[in-house]
Amino acid sequence: MKVFISADIEGVAGVVSWDQTLPQGRGYEQACEWMTDEVIAVCNAAIEADAEYICVADSHLNGENINLDRLPDQVSVVRGSPRPHGMMQGMESGDFDVAICLGYHTGAHEVGTLNHTSNGAGFHALRLNGEGIDELDLYIRVASHFGTPVGLVTGDNKICASAARRYPFVETAVVKQAIGRMSAQTSSPHAGRELIHQQTKSVLSDVSRFRLIDVQGPFELEVDFKWHHPAETLAFLPSFERTGAQTVRFRGADILSIAKVVAFLSAYKLVPYP
What is the C-alpha separation between 83 and 220, in angstroms, rounded? Predict the structure, then answer.
């Protein structure tokens, strides 16, 4: 069995503020250790299930959050940013049986702790074929494109409820209850990773029950920026259509083209004039 882990930080037990998610912020180093602990909980469950290969995509911010020295030897890690397949980078290299979405959070259009979609500083909201999307919506489709079903989503009660409603075959692990955008009633990190370990064991006991999402194209992506400038300048490109003062539209033949555009828009920064 081959197991893929896509790991974010906002949905990790104990993480409730932007400071905990940024390298310069107070509490970031501790949050990275909690994130690492949750990844290890999944890895240990996979090893107990005799997984022959485990790949972890460190998928928060710059992709340099997980403490590699603490991971089991059987694990390989996709690290760094930017990368074309985003939070599922590395999946294209192997035939995985199941994917685990660890530490996920709700999108910019939803209620939840630390809610945003891909780039909280730049994006107000993202829509796919007219519907608001979060990172799970995008990357569960990327996983399906590569033939890998998602079996488990972990995070706060809001993302887990959203996942269960939209993808009822997916199991969830709630490690905190959202109170506000920067507040939650959280389990202890130890209790959170114990729950994740047990839920992962349940998932891996029978991966055949999980299924792929329909990824038949074409797709239409709309991005609402927080500023006017990106929408104005992207409209200079023939592949983008400006549909509002702060909104652009992109049409892609498949979900990978959508994921690549989101990765590009999240990472691209203009070089200032000298």
Answer: 21
Give the DSSP H or E segment for 28.
helix 28-48
226: pLDDT strictly greater than 90: yes
Contacts of 108 (CB under 8 A, 6+ apart): 115, 116, 117, 120, 123, 124, 125, 126, 132, 134
Give the pair of three-digit tokens for residue 54: 């485990």
Q: Please tell me the predicted confidence (pLDDT) of residue 273.
A: 56
pTM: 0.96
Structure-token pair, residue 180: 């506000």
Query: Rounded CA gap, 121 and 249, in Å?
Result: 19
Residue type, 193: R
Name the nearest CA neighbour of 258 among 135, 122, 93.
135
Q: What are the angstrom distances between the C-alpha of 50 and each of 32, 77, 92, 194, 261? A: 27, 19, 22, 19, 37
Q: H/E element holding 55?
A: strand 53-58
Distance in angstroms (rounded) separating the CA atoms of residues 168 and 22: 33
3-state secondary structure (DSSP) of residue 90 = coil
Q: Where are the alpha helices (DSSP H) in 106-254?
A: 135-145, 157-166, 189-204, 228-234
Q: What is the pLDDT of residues 40-66, one digit of tens each?
A: 999 999 999 999 999 999 999 999 999
Interval 164-197: pLDDT, tens: 999 999 999 999 999 999 999 999 999 999 999 9
Instruction: Find where tokens 């955008």 sit.
Output: 181
